[in-house]
Amino acid sequence: MAVNQPSLVHETEVQRRHARVKIPATIALDSSTKVLKLENISASGFGINNADNTIEPNKLYSGQLRFEFLDFSFSVPVRFSQINASADGNIGCEFQELSKQEISTIRLIITKYLSGEVIQAGDVLSTINRDNYAKPRKKDVQAPLAGFAKLKGIVGTSLFFVIGLCAFAYLITNIYNVYWVESSLSAKVTLPHNKLYTPREGRIFSHVEPGDTVKAGDVLATIESPLYELMEPTLLNKDFNIESLQNILSQNLKLVVKSPCDCRVFERNFTDAQFVTKSSAIFSLASLDSKPFISASFPYSSLSSVDLGNTLDFSLAGSEHIQQGTVSNIEMFTNDNGSGYVKVDVIPNAPIEDLRLNQPVMVSTTQLNTSTLFGSVTPNAGG
Question: Which positions ≥6 away from 199 have C-beta within 8 Å?
């Protein structure tokens, strides 16, 4: 339970009062020509000998408080009243209605005098021109909040807490994704397929396009080969005249390439009229019920994170949506420079459209994000 306490103002060093000290000073009254010598002075008042009853009680007086220094004199306008008297004629007077500058100047003179320093005119001018007071604290700083102020405090505190928590989560997820997530070297959407090779060399002309569905026996392409290439061994052992050779050279032998299955054309690896050599891969054929999957390559050092059955994250080209899939196959390959890499097949948890075939994909081990950080994160089986 909150306890109301009185408002306290903590004074700075210059606002603390000094005990009364004996400093050579006088005070000239405005109401007469008398000049009274001060017996002592403090920041709040002074003492004088009032044997002739110049100062009467319960009256307010004004005058000039004068200080004489080595090379200059200085006076401060003051108002004062008597507050006590002794039997020997000495009385105590208290300053009234002094401004901050006047109080600061008197305190400066007392402080310099007590420390034994010589007072310079510049010290006095500097003190007059600056604010030597600490501002008082607001009232009721320890009073309990109520009403709208309490609601405002709760909302503000909650807002700062949420912002700080989000910033912390963002930092943690980025550190984790940079240092602990393995990313693929390359990846694309593909289909399970078989390659079809040319039976001989020649110029090839296609009859189908990628994505077409074909039946077993349908013509996929035509290969045209010059007749003389096939008859070259025979021609070398025969005598032909020019007309016969020209007739042979002008003829082409056509060969049709037929589909071996009911399937669909996944890829065509040539352009029309291109010359292909024997045993070149010209088509990739996929079964009609095949589903797209992802083929990705990882550094060999990522082997433990992309083992069979592991769950990987991926995002399709042009999309920031992260999806997941399971590693169904893993193979080892070697580059020309002798370094190895791992190629994995990832079966997506949700089907991928055929329109995505051959498009690039970003694949990585499971990443953290702010939603999974505060929820449940399923770690990789081997990562």
Answer: 223, 255, 257, 278
